[in-house]
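Consortium newsletter contribution from the modelling node. Members have asked for a concrete example of what our holo predictions look like. Here is one, prepared for the adenosine-5'-triphosphate complex that several groups have been discussing at recent meetings.
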Amino acid sequence: SRRIFAETFDALNKAFGELFRKAFGGGKAELVLEEGKDILMAGIEIIACPPGKKPSHVRLLSGGERTLTTLTLLFAVLRVRPSPFCVLDEVDASLDEANIRRFLVLIDDFTAKTQFLIITHNKLTMVKADRLVGITMEEKGISKMIDVNLRDLEASDGPPERRAA
Amino acid sequence: SRRIFAETFDALNKAFGELFRKAFGGGKAELVLEEGKDILMAGIEIIACPPGKKPSHVRLLSGGERTLTTLTLLFAVLRVRPSPFCVLDEVDASLDEANIRRFLVLIDDFTAKTQFLIITHNKLTMVKADRLVGITMEEKGISKMIDVNLRDLEASDGPPERRAA
Amino acid sequence: MYLKRLTLHGFKSFADRTAFDFSGGMTSIVGPNGCGKSNVVDALKWILGNQSPKEMRGSEMKDVIFAGTTTRRALGFAEVALIFDNEDRRLPTDHAEVAVERRLFRSGESEYRLNGMKCRLKDIRDLFTDTGIGQESYSILEQGKIDLLIQSSPVERRVIFEEAA
Amino acid sequence: MYLKRLTLHGFKSFADRTAFDFSGGMTSIVGPNGCGKSNVVDALKWILGNQSPKEMRGSEMKDVIFAGTTTRRALGFAEVALIFDNEDRRLPTDHAEVAVERRLFRSGESEYRLNGMKCRLKDIRDLFTDTGIGQESYSILEQGKIDLLIQSSPVERRVIFEEAA
Ligand SMILES: Nc1ncnc2c1ncn2[C@@H]1O[C@H](COP(=O)(O)OP(=O)(O)OP(=O)(O)O)[C@@H](O)[C@H]1O
Ligand SMILES: Nc1ncnc2c1ncn2[C@@H]1O[C@H](COP(=O)(O)OP(=O)(O)OP(=O)(O)O)[C@@H](O)[C@H]1O
Ligand SMILES: [Mg+2]
Ligand SMILES: [Mg+2]
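And here is the predicted structure:
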């Protein structure tokens, strides 16, 4: 079990580093086991360092940087241990436009093996989906499903767009 | 001090109810003191009920409904005890477009007495501001201030935004 | 293996029977604040065997049963059904489709069915344990929980990691 | 009374002296993830007398001093200055403008100035106590904290309410 843990940890760390560089366009990220503890008991520290910045503990990162780092770690886990489906509920809320596009590029690598259900208010994410499912409460307090296509979205919202870089 | 507390609590409750109805277009909201405790010690429960729904504890509300309820309570406090300035850091992240517009209408009532600094990624909120201040990290890791005008924002997004807007 | 059809009836704000057909790739679920998007995620967690009222954002499990609106009476039960496509036989049974159902009555009685046959919760959980479709799993990221992994302690992170390893 | 000018030098990612001129009404602060927007809010809390490293999103107060990048060396101090417009004499002093400065050196030494004269932190805090510009006050809502009020217990809410009453 020690061997299995070490192998999985290394595979996860490698995937995390690669996906982080892809998501941030550089920099580096790694998982570090707590010093001086047995590898089967030690906690896990996350070190992330966006390009050009000094490596620091993830807590010092900004809201958007933390979200993108967590998503990268999630995808690293999906790479090491694929899951048949993945549900993400408004994970793009704190991302700016440039990072939403990067997040969507990351997903592309995984849709072959994993089915994604993504709840979002963000048009960039909606545009990228293979299928859109709408939920409405035309009757107050009662949820119903409606079919939505992208043209509906464009018409209903008018000019000002939701997000900027 | 009992009298002062009761008066302030009533004024806050009245303002909260009014502003909630304005923000949600109906429904009701109130602050309730914990039963059976002395009014100077009792905790405060928040009951909020969007139009058409049954009154329930705020925890059962959705992410966006909770945010708008909290913002309404904040504005009720500002009405009862105005503050010279108010800083809001990405409070609109979980709101949909309709609720962002309602939030911006609420702010309008307060800008005469209170100066607002609002951090946002949301174009609807930016469009509404009297002044825009940009921060950039052209040199990686070094923050600088830049002047931004709305035309810049429109231009920097290019086609996808226009298409989805 | 993927999620093919999720049906809700009397579950939270879904008073009327509502079916969602999903396909592979990326599906985006959209709609205004409070319309019932996160309730769909709760339904998915519930049908996979989640037993914690807190995970359902309520205080007791009965909170998942439709509580009524100003125009509709409360219902006496909540029911969710999920059909998996199991062409790839990832679920250890011989069926090409696997159907799971869960029902809760206001009386507190529960009922579970697997491919139409009454069964125990344990049977459903056993079925899913090996595929990584679990309760605490990394395959469902609830609203607002994205920051939890970063904010958690190194030892808590270890638990999440073990689950995935 | 309103915030007129906020200057940061060596504070977090603001290595070079950077001044923000504000006016009344609503100002929106915009920029990509990680560019330094929330650092401006931290600077404002810091100049108003906040003494908690955790509130500055660090582990010790020195974490607010510019720590360097891959191309720049760390600095030895952090300095923030704030000028208030005090035409309405809301701050109990005779000046039409009130200037507050705070400096922290890597050695751990701090320095405070009020209208150019050295003073203690207590003098600054005393000045602000009556106007509702405080540390725990409702006038600064940090990123991600919007949900805290709803998630908090009735007794904790009471504390927030007392502050405002
Ligand atoms: N048992 C129940 N009966 C009826 N309605 C319920 C029940 N439980 C929750 N609700 C309602 O469901 C609504 C919340 O739905 P949900 O959290 O899914 O919204 P959402 O679409 O995710 O919104 P957001 O975009 O704000 O996150 C609440 O308004 C709540 O009143
Ligand atoms: N002492 C310091 N020296 C240098 N850089 C620092 C220091 N403290 C924090 N930073 C950097 O500041 C950045 C975070 O800035 P901030 O939280 O203000 O971003 P933001 O603009 O609010 O982004 P978001 O839109 O994602 O919320 C981090 O990348 C962090 O590395
Ligand atoms: Mg939701
Ligand atoms: Mg921020």
